[in-house]
Amino acid sequence: xxxxxxxxxxxxxxxxxxxxxxxxxxxxxxxxxxxxxxxxxxxxxxxxxxxxxxxxxxxxxxxxxxxxxxxxxxxxxxxxxxxxxxxxxxxxxxxxxxxxxxxxxxxxxxxxxxxxxxxxxxxxxxxxxxxxxxxxxxxxxxxxxxxxxxxxxxxxxxxxxxxxxxxxxxxxxxxxxxxxxxxxxxxxxxxxxxxxxxxxxxxxxxxxxxxxxxxxxxxxxxxxxxxxxxxxxxxxxxxxxxxxxxxxxxxxxxxxxxxxxxxxxxxxxxxxxxxxxxxxxxxxxxxxxxxxxxxxxxxxxxxxxxxxxxxxxxxxxxxxxxxxxxxxxxxxx
Length: 333
Description:
The protein has 333 residues and is α/β, with parallel strands linked by helices. It is built from 13 helices and 9 strands. It has a 5-stranded parallel sheet, sandwiched between helices. It has a two-stranded antiparallel ribbon with strand order 1-2. A two-stranded antiparallel ribbon has the order 4-5. Helix 4 packs across helix 5 and helix 5 (80-102) runs parallel beside helix 8.
């Protein structure tokens, strides 16, 4: 409780310096679209002071903590619905993975792999010597196993996302993270069943130590770079994860994947040429539709990422554009 009580004071006074480049190319443009500032903290107004000779009472700012948070943050970080959805996902994931590992599969779950036909494929669960690889579940990190509560508090105050503050967060933010609801129990169940917990994140490899510290601070156990923790910069593919998935699958029998972005399952979903509805259709139909809850497990994240791209015309196709005064066919009784 004491830690949460001091978060506001510590972060509001922090001087965000050091670090130079972004850890995840998806965050900047997505947050700009999703998170509207809730309070202006510019100049003396933030402290109830004056500008241009105005009287103090005329420029007194409302306490920023009393301002409404962005709707997406209210839902993900503050709602029981988000907690319930995450707990549900983790319970289903653990049940599935434990059963899948016990069946000793010959091949991994389908996943994005470099040069795989159609963008996805499977990997042999045997080592070259014929022995069986340890089963594993591969997780994204941010908003999949940990909630970046401290960083999102900072942006909710009206500070726009920037790479400098994110890099400082990635290096030193561990005391201000929280576990995704359900993650602590879900990961414990996996490890008790002999299943490795492996992380594949687009946090930058420069911040491997800070990332491992954040995972541990959330009560999710250890993470070791190049063993159970893989980061952007570990190969030449940048923010695309297929190469890292191949590296992981060469060592482990991957029985399930979990993430908050379709790119956590296969890079094919984040092709820049895909319009939002086309991306949705790709995920929701055909062979990929069969994988949700059956090896692939999605965690909710309406705050940032590829999932929140698109203007009104992108999101609502022509057959959805109703307005008052336009008659439609009456529904069948």
